[in-house]
Design goal:
Phage baseplate protein, Baseplate_phage_T4-like, globular, 23% strand, alpha+beta, 3-stranded antiparallel β-sheet, 40% helix
Length: 290
Amino acid sequence: MRMPDEAGRVGAAASSPGTCRLPGGVLREGRRLNEVRFRPLTGRLEEALAAEGEDARSLPERITELLAVAIESLEGGPVDRATVAAMSVGDRRFLTRQLARVVVGDPVWLSHPCRECGAPFDIHFRRSELPVKPAGAGYPWAELELARHGRLRLRVPTGADQARLAGLEEEAAIRRLVADCLLEADSGFTVEALAASLTPEELAAIDAALEQASPEVASELEADCPECGTRQRVPVAADLGLGFGIDGLLGEVHRLALAYHWQEGEILDLPRWRRQHYLALIDRERGLYR
């Protein structure tokens, strides 16, 4: 049986990533580029995302690969892995959330142990409702004054920075990040010497300046433990849900191939909304629902 040219477009808007605007943006030739377009969500894209999600590299490197596979363009221009790696951490978290919302769904259930009584409890939220803080003034740079070092100018951290820091202990990672992001300093220290000499208070001041300049997606939720009533903050992983497997997709390919005798490549080329519509028709024909 040949695949028909058209089918009823059921749920198309809900299963296509489409376009979005970065809360920070990529600086290129004096312009801040914000508009990102995702590739249409076909079986081939889902297959590629599942393959990248099983990669053994560090999480920042995996996120770079996932987004590079999923993003079609930035302000109409091509996007490669270097472009994604150079995006700010906040922009990458925003894009990962947008992608997860479409690929694995907007509603999320988390299970979390209470920090007070230890009882596990469930939290429900929607990815689309997580607050987003746009970039601050001066983005993608941050400036501050330190008593011992004078004026410092830094760039906001990127995905490439995160990848370099993977595996380092927290204090070493923070000092390495400062050294990598520092652009200008009034003191006569070298970058490495300055980063090594910073006190905890100075590191906190630098972190606050970078946080103010950077875009952010909420990484915590507030919730009350139903057992003891303690209000607490629950972490929300940036890549929540993107490590999905390929079994579900292959199961859908199998069912469609059996029903319509299409080739695997033809099925993988279908948009997800259309593939799922055909699956619903198959179930209807078999009397699974009306």
